[in-house]
Design brief:
Blueprint lengths: L2 E4 L4 E4 L14 E6 L5 E5 L3 E5 L7 E4 L13 E6 L5 E5 L4 E4 L6 E4 L14 E4 L5 E5 L3 E5 L6 E4 L1 E2 L5 E2 L2 E6 L5 E6 L3 E6 L5 E3 L21 E6 L4 E6 L2 E6 L20 E6 L5 E5 L2 E5 L6 E4 L10 E6 L4 E6 L2 E6 L5 E4 L10 E8 L5 E5 L2 E5 L14 E7 L2 E2 L5 E2 L2 E2 L10 E4 L6 E6 L9 E7 L5 E2 L6 E4 L5 E11 L2 E2 L3 E7 L7 H73 L3 H31 L8 E4 H10 L2 H6 L3 E6 L5 E4 L1 H17 L6 E10 L11 E9 L6 H4 L23 H11 L3 E6 L7 E8 L39 H6 L14 H11 L7
Parallel strand pairs: 39-46, 48-50
Antiparallel strand pairs: 1-2, 3-4, 4-5, 6-34, 7-8, 8-9, 9-10, 11-12, 12-13, 13-14, 15-16, 17-18, 18-19, 19-20, 21-22, 22-23, 24-25, 25-26, 26-27, 28-29, 29-30, 30-31, 32-33, 33-34, 35-36, 35-40, 37-38, 40-43, 41-42, 41-44, 44-45, 44-46, 47-49, 50-51, 51-53, 52-53
Helix pairs in contact: 1-2, 2-7, 3-5, 5-7
């Protein structure tokens, strides 16, 4: 209980203070003081300081912040309606509907459930027709008629001009005769229901895509937010593009204002008719007053005193005034004077933000407004706007958002010589020409209602938004400024206060400044000269680079020419050598012949690869694609590696997802791809290792259907060799790039094969990549993807296969012969070798040369 001691009567009685959001019965008040305005300041243990104003308005609150009157949950209140039986119905956002009866301490609550007769979860508007029926407008479930006792709803189906069901109902209203229910639909226009028959019709509406005509007898916009049936039989329609008016008796949209739309471009949120028949339209740009007799209009905005330009709901009182909820408080307009009295959350409102069209009248002259934190209800006669003259002072002065105090320096001078609140002059240097001034009217309980005005050097007064007490200036020119300010509390103005702000000019007219300018000009000139010289040197380097590229190209062309000259002699060496190998049966000679053949074929292979790369680089290689059975094609190539894998004791495995896979390739070039990959795999895989070749088909859903690799064949060559370091993978396909490490020094290649392989794969419209075999598995694998089908090929690239079954015969393939590692020493040679105490150690990184030297040195020598 709160007690109050009256000094004059020396009696203690119960305090008149009532705060629904604070429980004084449990507060530990440690200190009390009273200021000169009559406000009480309470120091509360563990709670801080509380201000009790000298006078309070009787705004009442119901909602989740209230300690005693929370009957309506914690969701936003979007609709309010007082029915004929005295029940206050509250529609919420996502919490159904509440019904409050004055004689009951409890409230009805009908929640949304998953059945066809449940109340909507979100309710935009509640309306009771003259026959006592209760109607609900929902943005999600549409139009419903609710039984107020059971909460059971009957839903009505609305259809647009395309017979599509629409449910986003925004507002409801019945005409003065109670014969029809008018329904506003966001995105659907206006419907009306015959309350006797239940038949629903739709008003003619301009549809999207049609050219707008203001004299056309149709609703101008189908995004309808509010409706109003007036006493003279008109239906005003607020839309997202102005206001329309329908003469209900003639169903004409143009008879009232000679056009079907007024205030085009404005979003009309709410409508109201006062007792004189004038129309008030609340928009997002302010409040519009339309004279009911002559149609003249006037717009009120924040410049006229509104707390906010977004109008949510409008109601009238018995004193001929209007109460208007906005997105920032409630205002009361005196229709005789045009003055506004603004009220905010500090006055006891549920909050500053209210809901659209959420307002109604209750019993005993109560007005009820719904908002995001609950409802505010009050008797307008009990709300008074205390008129007192405010006292304006400077609260703070900021330079570049830093507060100024006594002794603060600006350049060589002190800004002020006393406290900011007492200062009349502020001295600033040219660098501090951006500053802010903060005012105060010593109104701590409800500072939002104070409006501050200022004027600079005798200019017109500029009013700040209500509650804003700070003004900022940027980059003012040097000079002396006379700054005047005053405060407005409702209709009372404070006395004007003036301060002088002096901004000193800069130093740039001095001799030192001129010297600096000269140095700067010379520096700029020097910088320009340096830039010109730098560009000249860069141009010379570019020319040198181009010249080096030309020389390199000439060298490469010379190398290709020499390679071409080598090709013919190598062919003449290999052919006679093959004849000698067929005739000569001597084992030692055949070993020498084999060495000659292998190395000759290596040279020929290198020459052919160089010439292929040259053709590709010059764009001179054109592939001729034929239909081939790739499984048999690959198996034939694998057979050429049987001897090599047997000698190195390698396991060669071939897997395929299907027995036959037909695809389009150039057989004369694609075999080089497989041979290069298999040759590298065998070369870099140690003895007793494994080489695995697999063929599969697949589909890449991430690519478009017409992409070449949407359907593909995947060829994988995996080995259990030394693997490839991650840093090397992005370079191994570059021309002449070689990988060197401690494990492959004896097997360093030319850096040509993989570059040729990638080029040929890309000419086949495919892709190639390399990756590890996975954790716990040594080696690496090369993955090639080639397109299935021939949709990606040009007509001139294809040649019909002469083979009846689509298989390219192996006789037509000219593969690059894989270099096989023949045994250098048979078991008989091992037995014949003479044991000797003398040994010669041969050190050579090439294995074949090492064996050749050892064989030439004869028996009895140890080679390593």
């Amino acid at each position: 209980m709160e007690l109050k001691y009256t000094i004059h009567t020396q009696k203690i009685k119960e305090s008149e203070f009532s705060f629904s959001t604070f429980d004084f019965s449990k507060a530990d008040v440690r200190a009390i003081t009273k200021d000169k305005a009559g406000n009480l300041w309470l120091g509360i243990n563990a709670k801080g300081v509380m201000l009790l104003p000298a006078t309070t308005n009787q705004f009442k609150y119901m909602g989740y912040k209230s300690l005693t009157t929370n009957k309506i949950g914690s969701n936003c209140i979007k609709a309010v309606c007082k029915d004929s039986e005295g029940t206050l119905w509250l529609g919420t956002a996502n919490d159904g509907i509440y019904g409050i009866k004055e004689e009951s301490k409890f409230s009805l609550h009908f929640e949304h459930k998953e059945n066809s007769q449940s109340v909507p979860s979100t309710i935009n508007y509640i309306h009771q027709t003259a026959d006592g029926r209760l109607w609900l407008a929902s943005p999600l479930e549409g139009l419903a008629e609710m039984n107020p006792k059971t909460g059971i709803c009957h839903y009505y189906k609305l259809q647009d001009h395309n017979q599509n069901e629409i449910k986003n109902i925004s507002h409801l209203v019945s005409d003065k005769n109670g014969e029809r229910l008018w329904i506003a639909v966001m995105g659907g226009g206006v419907f009306y229901m015959d309350l006797k028959t239940g038949k629903i019709n739709r008003c003619d509406t301009f549809e999207s895509g049609k050219e707008y005509q203001e004299n056309y007898n149709a609703l101008h916009n189908r995004w309808v937010s509010s409706l109003l049936c007036t006493s003279n039989g008109k239906l005003y329609i607020g839309t997202y593009d102005g206001l329309g008016c329908l003469d209900i008796s003639t169903m004409s949209f143009t008879s009232t204002y000679k056009k079907n739309r007024i205030f085009g471009g404005s979003i009309v949120l709410t409508l109201f008719e006062d007792e004189k028949g004038d129309i008030w339209a609340g928009t997002t740009k302010g409040l519009i007053h339309i004279d009911g007799k002559n149609g003249n209009s006037k717009t009120y905005t924040t410049h006229d005193g509104l707390p906010n330009n977004t109008i949510c709901a409008i109601q009238s009182d018995r004193q001929h005034g209007l109460w208007i909820s906005t997105n920032y408080g409630i205002t009361n307009i005196n229709l005789e004077t045009g003055n506004f009295a603004n009220y905010y959350a500090g006055n006891g409102l549920q909050g500053n933000e209210f809901s659209q069209n959420a307002a109604c009248k209750g019993k005993e002259d109560y007005l009820i407004f719904g908002g995001i934190n609950g409802i505010t209800y009050f008797r307008p006669a009990e709300i008074t706007a205390e008129v007192k003259q405010p006292e304006i002072k400077i609260a703070d002065f900021y330079i570049h958002n830093k507060a100024v105090k006594k002794g603060t320096q600006s350049g060589k001078h002190e800004v002020i010589e006393t406290a900011v609140q007492k200062a009349n002059k502020f001295h600033l240097c040219h660098k501090d020409n951006s500053f802010s001034i903060e005012f105060t009217a010593m109104e701590f309980y409800n500072p939002e209602r104070i409006t501050y005005l200022y004027s600079m050097n005798g200019a017109n007064w500029v009013a700040l938004a209500p509650g804003v007490n700070r003004v900022s200036f940027s980059d003012l020119a040097p000079g002396t400024y006379h700054f005047r300010m005053k405060a407005k509390d409702y209709t009372a103005y404070s006395e004007e206060k003036e301060i002088i702000i002096q901004i000193d000019p800069a130093w740039w007219v001095s001799g030192w400044a001129k010297l600096i300018y000269t140095l700067l000009i010379l520096s700029v000139f020097g910088f320009i000269v340096m830039q010109v010289r730098h560009r000249y040197h860069m141009h010379q380097k570019m020319l040198q680079h181009i010249h080096a590229e030309q020389i390199n190209e000439a060298k490469l062309q010379f190398f290709i020419n020499i390679s071409h000259e080598i090709r013919t002699p190598m062919s003449l060496i290999i052919s006679p050598l093959q004849q000698l190998m067929a005739k000569d049966k001597d084992i030692e000679c055949r070993k020498l012949y084999a060495t000659i053949q292998r190395n000759a074929e290596r040279i020929l292979q290198l020459v052919n690869q160089l010439m292929d790369i040259r053709k590709i680089d010059k764009g001179q290689m054109s592939l001729i694609f034929k239909k081939a059975e790739i499984v048999s094609f690959t198996r034939d190539i694998l057979e050429t590696f049987e001897q090599q894998t047997r000698i190195k004791k390698l396991e060669l495995e071939f897997q395929t997802s299907t027995p036959e896979i037909e695809m389009w390739i150039d057989p004369k070039n694609f075999d080089k791809v497989i041979l290069n990959l298999l040759s590298n795999a065998c070369k870099f895989t140690p003895e007793n290792g494994k080489v695995k070749v697999s063929l599969n088909t697949g589909e890449d859903t991430s690519l478009p259907d017409k992409a070449p690799l949407h359907r593909y064949v995947e060829l994988t060559v995996a080995d259990s060799g030394i693997g490839i370091a991650p840093a090397e993978r992005e370079h191994i396909f570059e021309q002449f790039y070689q990988i060197r490490n401690s494990q492959n020094n004896s097997n360093v290649g030319t850096g040509i094969g993989l570059h040729l392989t990638r080029s040929l794969v890309e000419l086949h419209y495919g892709s190639i990549r390399v990756e590890d075999n996975g954790e716990g598995h040594a080696g690496s694998r090369f993955i090639i993807r080639l397109p299935l089908g021939n949709e990606h090929l040009k007509k001139e690239e294809m040649e019909e296969s002469t083979s009846t079954n689509g298989i390219i015969e192996t006789s037509t393939i000219e593969p690059i012969l894989a270099v096989s590692l023949l045994p250098y020493e048979s078991e008989e040679d091992e037995k014949k070798r003479v044991r000797s105490r003398r040994h010669v150690l041969v050190v050579e990184d090439d294995e074949e040369i090492r064996h050749y030297i050892c064989r030439e040195l004869g028996n009895g020598l140890l080679h390593g």
